Design the sequence.
């Protein structure tokens, strides 16, 4: 099959865009339990993303038709809803028992809202007080709110270690589940592990822990050797098949993924060589990277999902570029978390890989066209894209790309973490 035919065939059998117009300007931010497994998602809105009333109506419609639930895969999820939406449409939450509401301390002084929250609590709705640095038990109004909510989130980044310990222990003794928020460095994360917390949330997940002397485990060295083999000599379809021929689990994961209903192929692909001919060598190499990284069971699953989302977003943001550069953009997005996945500095990890200069410059020096794509993805993750005077059309496009990326990442991750039968 010619390169042109491969491109046309692969494009024609790419997964269709998600049905329904979700396109909410949100990012799902994981809260992890102390074992680093998913406890819940928070759906955080892009700051300054537009008219709040229209946004809340859009949220309501996506809750009602189930689209929001698909974004979070049915997991426990919290989001901030406007007072008006809660007072007028709180009944819609009854049909989504794993969807909860984040409440500011000011809710405690709103009599009408408190009446509603008491009814919601009686019906089993999930309610979380975002206490921040406020001492919940120092106020009679907040004390009333504490009797309603099941969860309290504390600002671990702003509270002193002593305050965080005292408040988390006090709330825990009352039977309230405590979440540490704004855990944005590993020192704070380590302190949180010693506290009675049900979940930890923050940027620490996406940044590598500082190490004085990088040491790669045998598993990580094996993955890097595989990645080097996939880069050396620009292997073709036959060579790709030979490289992973003896890794039965990796081959199984890869073929299971490409043959899944998600991609709706016209025929089953029976070998890595066939898959590389059909999809193209570069794309198949990127998917082998993905499956190999999925074997790192000592890393939080949400970390690999984040890398997959970045990869897919970068590829979609590069739509106007030639195919080869789009696939390089995918690699840049996937490898943007390679230092965190490998628990080693990026410069050290990349010395093991013969990457093209454009990708290396983006990851190490923050230069070049792929660095610009990554900056957009980072801003989306941080929820700051809407605060950058961004045109509404661009925010809408990023929202659609992010939705597609999360659904693709969830599908691929499901295959990356499975074991051969």
Sequence:
């Amino acid at each position: 099959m010619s390169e042109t035919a491969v491109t046309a065939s692969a494009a024609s059998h790419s997964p269709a865009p998600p049905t329904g117009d979700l396109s909410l300007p949100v990012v799902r931010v994981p809260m992890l339990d102390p074992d680093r497994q998913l406890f819940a998602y928070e759906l955080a809105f892009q700051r300054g993303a537009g008219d709040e009333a229209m946004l809340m109506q859009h949220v309501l419609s996506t809750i009602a038709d189930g689209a929001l639930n698909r974004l979070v895969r049915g997991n426990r999820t919290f989001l901030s809803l406007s007072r008006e939406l809660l007072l007028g449409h709180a009944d819609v939450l009854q049909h989504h028992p794993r969807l909860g509401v984040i409440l500011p301390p000011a809710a405690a002084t709103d009599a009408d809202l408190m009446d509603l929250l008491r009814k919601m609590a009686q019906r089993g709705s999930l309610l979380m007080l975002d206490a921040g640095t406020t001492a919940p038990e120092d106020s009679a109004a907040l004390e009333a709110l504490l009797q309603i909510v099941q969860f309290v989130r504390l600002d671990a980044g702003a509270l002193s270690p002593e305050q965080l310990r005292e408040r988390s222990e006090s709330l825990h003794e009352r039977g309230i589940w405590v979440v540490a928020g704004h855990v944005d460095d590993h020192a704070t994360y380590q302190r949180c592990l010693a506290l009675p917390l049900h979940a930890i949330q923050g940027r620490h997940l996406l940044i590598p822990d500082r190490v004085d002397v990088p040491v790669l485990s045998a598993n990580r060295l094996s993955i890097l050797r595989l990645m080097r083999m996939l880069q050396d000599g620009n292997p073709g379809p036959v060579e790709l098949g030979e490289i992973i021929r003896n890794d039965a689990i990796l081959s199984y994961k890869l073929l299971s993924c490409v043959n899944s209903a998600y991609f709706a192929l016209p025929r089953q692909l029976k070998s890595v060589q066939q898959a590389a001919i059909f999809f193209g060598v570069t794309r198949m190499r990127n998917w082998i990277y993905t499956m190999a990284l999925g074997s790192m069971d000592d890393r939080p699953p949400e970390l690999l999902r984040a890398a997959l989302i970045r990869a897919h977003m970068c590829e979609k943001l590069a739509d106007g570029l030639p195919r080869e550069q789009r696939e390089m953009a995918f690699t840049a997005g996937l490898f943007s978390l390679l230092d965190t996945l490998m628990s080693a500095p990026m410069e050290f990890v990349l010395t093991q890989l013969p990457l093209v200069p454009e990708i290396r410059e983006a990851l190490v020096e923050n230069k070049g066209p792929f660095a610009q794509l990554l900056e957009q993805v980072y801003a989306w993750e941080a929820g700051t894209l809407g605060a950058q005077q961004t045109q509404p059309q661009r925010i809408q496009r990023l929202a659609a790309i992010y939705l597609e990326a999360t659904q693709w990442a969830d599908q691929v991750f499901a295959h990356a973490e499975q074991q051969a039968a």
Observations:
- The CA atoms of residues 214 and 316 lie 33 Å apart.
- Residues 1-20 have pLDDT under 50 and may be disordered.
